[in-house]
Design goal:
Elements (H helix, E strand, L loop, with lengths): L2 H22 L14 H4 L9 H10 L8 H12 L19 H7 L14 H25 L6 H11 L1 H7 L8 H17 L12 H8 L30 H12 L10 H4 L4 E3 L11 E4 L8 E7 L2 E4 L8 E4 L3 H4 L3 E5 L2
Antiparallel strand pairs: 1-6, 2-3, 2-6, 3-4, 4-5
Length: about 350
Amino acid sequence: MHGGRFRRRLTSLAAAVAAVAAAAGCAPPSVTQPGVLDSIIDAALKIGTVPTAYQELVVAAGKVCPGVSAPLIAAQIEQESGWNPDAKSPVGAQGLSQFMPGTWAELGRDANGNGINSPFDPADAINAQARYDCQLLAQVNAYLKSGRIAGDPTDLMLAAYNAGIGRVLTAGGISGQLPVETQQYISRIRKLMTKYADVTLPTGGTGNVAAVKAATRWMGTPYVWGGGDLEQPTGLGRDGRGPGWDCSSLTRHAIWIASGRTVQIPRVSSAQATAGRPVEPKLAAMAPGDIIAFSIHGGGIDHVGIYAGNGTMIHAPRTGKNVEPVDLTDAYWSKLPWTVRRFL
């Protein structure tokens, strides 16, 4: 009944965001960037974060297929049941991984050979969860290839787990047409994954590692064109996701937090590229916390990220993606001219 007014509000919001983003100069790359080190997606499990009784089961589940890692499995279980093997939802979902009876009838198996096939058996539930995730991931990748949906494969898989693959197809992928609950589920899982992932932050160098930690905290958060203020992600993206960051708001936030809220750098990427102290654009001269600026489309500075050390940059890439690390030694990034600035 209120759909027309809602769409008009979104249109007005999008126009306002576009004005900010145009000034920010965070033009998203128009090509798929190779060499993405999606360390949260592919990371090993951080030992001690999962209840001891389930640790080996989660590690094994993270090896069922590429793209479904142990941290992802652990994050889903925390969100679904809070690690309660006897959990039951009001709608009938059961066990650690909250399987509906109909889905369990298709996927359930006696994974540990104890003669019991039950969603309340942790070994059975975690194994089935991994196989279901892998099945959904294969489906969304096929739909992505055919052009029927758009979005990040992991986000699409999580959306399908939460709302069903049919809802994802109807929505055309990651979009505002997905239920709000599903959009929140994706964001929650992404954030929880950082808790369970064994990702080693860089040490050494003369830069401020605190800025790297400030940026790393938000890995998995959606890119939102024009989104993000000094303190937190904001806004709604073109793909219907949010709140989130664009490239220059993330770097600005990281420096702000790392400085103890005393250093406020310019909002736009082109201004960030001329502020601070210049650094020779070579990895040997750079330190964690430095800001790297790029001219991706050749018309001036239109993208920035924060150097994390060890040849890695953390950035907010483009609509449909999330804050993530990339390998600066990859051909895509190494061929671009760099401008490096130091603020701390």
